[in-house]
Task: structure prediction
Amino acid sequence: MMKKDPFKYFHSNPEIIRLTVMMNVCFPLSLRNVEDLLHERGIDLSHETVRYWWNRFGPMFATEIRRKRVQQMRSYSNWQWHLDEVFVKISGEQHYFWRAVDHEGEVLESVVTKTRDRKAALKFLKKSKKRHGRPHILVTDKLRSYGAAMKDIGNADKQETGRWLNNRAENSHLPFRRRERAMLRFRQMRCLQKFASVQSSVQNHFNQERHLYSRDNFKLNRSAALSEWRQLCSG
Result:
């Protein structure tokens, strides 16, 4: 059975749509910033078109990236995960943004909740394990909700806490914080959850860890990532 072409009935080139979504997700730019940068490249569209394309195609691209990466990651050992939560303001109310990161900095799961109690931590852990399997070590901060949730699922012996041990998860929040400022924060929980899911997948795809490679290898990896991006949802 042939896959349905997601770009059917769109008059714009799929390359332009992919470029627009990538700029809006990867970089801390507002919708009007993206509009101005595309105009400089001879592409004339409205910031509302940028918003529409992001809402229509962003989750689609993220789903395809995630599907491929989960298949690859399940073939390797889940050695260590880093779990952390940060405060996020949504329409003036405080919410909590949970994130699971593996030992290489890959963002595994992102969940938004209204509380950070045992129930919320349990929901976050179950969702992460259902998709990515079971890790050998879970590094967290000293929030008691993690310990209570891990007792419920029988993982208390795998939890590790300590000063500076969780810097991997703390640093993974930085791109999100930069993007949050550019978007002037979020107004709904579902919008934040949707954006976080898309951003983490796209960030994983383009994260080349340039500090670990020579310049030549980095350029090859970056070109390969761009090539794969241009093939997303192409059928």
